Amino acid sequence: MHNCPAYLEILYAIWHAGLVAVPINAKLHPKEVQYILDDAGVALLFVADALDVPAAAAIVSVASAQYRSLFAADGQASIAHYTPGDLAWLFYTSGTTGKPKGVMLTHDNLLAMTQCYFTDVDTVTMNDSMLYAAPMSHGAGLYNFPHVLAGARHVVPESGGFSVEEIGELGRRYRNLSMFAAPTMVRRLVDHCASHAGAAEGIKTIVYGGGPMYVEDIRRALRVMGQRFVQIYGQGETPMTITALSKFHLAQTEHARYLERLGSVGVAQSAVEVRVVDADGREVPAGESGEIVVRGATVMHGYWNNPEATGQTLRDGWLHTGDVGRFDDDGFLTLKDRSKDIIISGGSNIYPREVEEVLLMHPAVAEVSVVGRHSAEWGEEVVAFVVCAKGKPVATAELDALCLAHIARFKRPKEYRMVPALPKNNYGKVLKTALRQTLSST
Questions:
Q1: Which end of the chain lies in a sparser environment, N or C, as judged by fewer CB atoms within 10 Å?
Q2: 137: closest CA among 107, 167, 105?
């Protein structure tokens, strides 16, 4: 379903009855929906609109008399009791590198994640409001738990999605709004607030994650909207809980390494241990890059009906994220890139994010994504896909000069491609796989 109040009604009814929830993003293609239904063995499907899939499950529309009858039932059935490790939420990964996998999240996982919200992310009171402007099937929906526990208000925009004007109006009406947003959404909201005085007035907290937030972007966000931001780093396999960069850290502007910390994803959250390891699983010293691994109460119990993938990802008690990063001496983790996105040119590793950070320093660059292209001479070479700010074209010579002023010459893009937009999935993540396919077909 798209975002609507019935989403939470159904979610809690599922657990009341002792069943397992399988949230499905309404923006998925019918073939993707069908794959999830078949793989999970879904028995009952709630929808907001007509669904173009030959579902084997029984289907109930939330607009139907049948749903109204279910909602009006006397509710005397006893609440199901759970034991540690019971499955609660089957979350399907976005599938950008193949078929989506069903992440098995237990009631224990969700409880630990919720406790981390209170400890590491934000406080919640009955006077607060949780705004669902991102898909409730993903991170935004997971943050319902701390707000339900605190007795806070839940607000679903009438649009069912993300509208900067609507968010401003809802903030003024309900006050103390908290929301989860991808960095692309944050940029749009900041642009709106920069040109509309008072638009951020009712917003309490914006938790951002799900993609890289570049230093220049968060610096501008803080200038325009003030101390309303918290960054989290997580994966579906350890939902919303690997590290957090708190309001406290974002406010420490006098710290000697403040800009470094702005470029990090913060410190380990309370329920997990986080390490950076080499190819043999050995922990590396602070300052050295390696794969990020996690263990703790939030880590999934495995992939649904996929023991091979489970064995590859969960090894020796640790979740292997596939992300590359490094710790500093104070325990702040900086993400370099997904291991599959590292560009190896002439035997040297190039981290796309490092190049992207530099290019975004140019005022005419709105968005950028860097990928590798096969090179007979170097193995791979750097290509930058650039989205220019409206009405602000930029010469490649200017971008070259910017790179040469800030990073090693070998990291400089060999080609700049000006594009109207970057391809993104339903959660706002840039699809670097699609960009690489573009390069291979031209």
A1: C
A2: 105
